[in-house]
Amino acid sequence: MWLYNFGLALYAWVIRLISPRHEKARLWSEGRRDLFKRMGDTIDPRARIVWIHTASLGEFEQGRPIIERIRREHPEFKILLTFFSPSGYEIRKNYPEADYIFYLPIDTPHNARRFLEIAHPEIAVFVKYEFWLNLLAELRRRHIRTYIVSAIFRRNSIFFKPYGGMWRQALESFDTIFVQNNESRKLLSEIGFDNVVVAGDTRFDRVAEIAAAAKKIDLIERFRGEKRLFVAGSTWGPDEELLIRLMNDNPEIKFVIAPHEMDETRIARLLNETRGGGVRYTESTPHTAFGCRQLLVLDTVGLLSSVYGYATWSYIGGGFGVGIHNTLEAATFGLPLAFGPNYQKFKEARDLITLGAARSVSSYEELKQWFTPLRDNDEFLRKTGRIAKDYTVRHQGATELIVKELFRQ
């Protein structure tokens, strides 16, 4: 345990050291300054608290259906939401469905005790991962009901190693471990855990809510006009290399590309190398003439999930880097999907490929082979999209199961 505590102390020291020159590190440090005072000044000591912890934005989206269902069904509780990463906290720090939103303090024994004294949760929920050993030990010592949801366990993880005893002990803090698949349940049973429920992934519930609440975007409607629309979400440079060629080979089709990061060089390249002409969303107005523009660069946040509702096909970025981004936001609208080769960590991507609703591509030739029959055969297009939609519908329901268990006692 001393090595774990030393490693965290070293991590915090490095973050503070680089914070003057690194924006994310600066936010990480500043967000934790006077944290306990701010918590003490804000959190009502008489309130009944459900604490939800998410690492970052992706985990927040998995936890969001649970938060909002608790808000509707158990208004007697206040909701405390914590983040570890600035990329989650800075975007969702004003999220209206949580009563209190803070960074999670660095996981030292002292911080764990202080945090729980102020937060005094009746129920603690960790989303997907982040096994903070001191916090979990303190939750166990205080007999606070603790859960993990949408978790995935793999045989090569530390819990199943001979030297993973400290991490296996941390799992004993959870009253129930809600996992996404049977493989995780079987692995946990091998090391003696039978308090495991295969609930699935709450993201399926979340994307269903997103689709039901999709915004009407007049500008996208005008841009698409009477043509068909191809939407590429969360793209990176290697994805855009392929998409530029696809656009130039299909001048009759409109494209919306939403870069994962607003890199001005890459945006300029998209606009300059698209022979059909392009325009940025943020520079468009109700008077912009879209008829002669083939590409719209979605250089803003918060709209992509609704834009998928206007699409005929979709491409998900990130697959030429560390891994693809969210495929379910597009699949829930019944769109055929393509993405790069690095998708193996994502069960839903593997499932969609197996079902025939998605294709992994490693080159422009493969992208073209996927796209051409979907472009030219309307029946094949409808069938493929229906498979994607049906897959997302079949896997809904995790949120209801989890919330019932949280409040069963």
Describe the protein's architecture and organization.
- With 409 residues, the chain is an alpha/beta fold.
- It folds into 2 domains: 2-209 and 397-406, 3-Layer(aba) Sandwich (Rossmann fold); 213-394, 3-Layer(aba) Sandwich (Rossmann fold).
- The protein has helices spanning 2-18, 23-31, 35-42, 57-73, 86-92, 109-119, 133-141, 165-171, 182-190, 203-212, 218-224, 237-249, 264-273, 304-307, 328-331, 347-355, 364-376, 378-394, 398-406; strands at 49-54, 78-83, 100-103, 121-127, 145-151, 176-179, 196-198, 229-235, 254-259, 278-280, 295-297, 313-316, 337-339, 358-360.
- The strands form 2 sheets. Strands 3-2-1-4-5-6-7 form a 7-stranded parallel sheet, sandwiched between helices. The chain has a 7-stranded parallel sheet with strand order 10-11-9-8-12-13-14.
- Helix 12 (237-249) links the parallel strand 8 and strand 9 (254-259).
- The two termini are 33 Å apart.
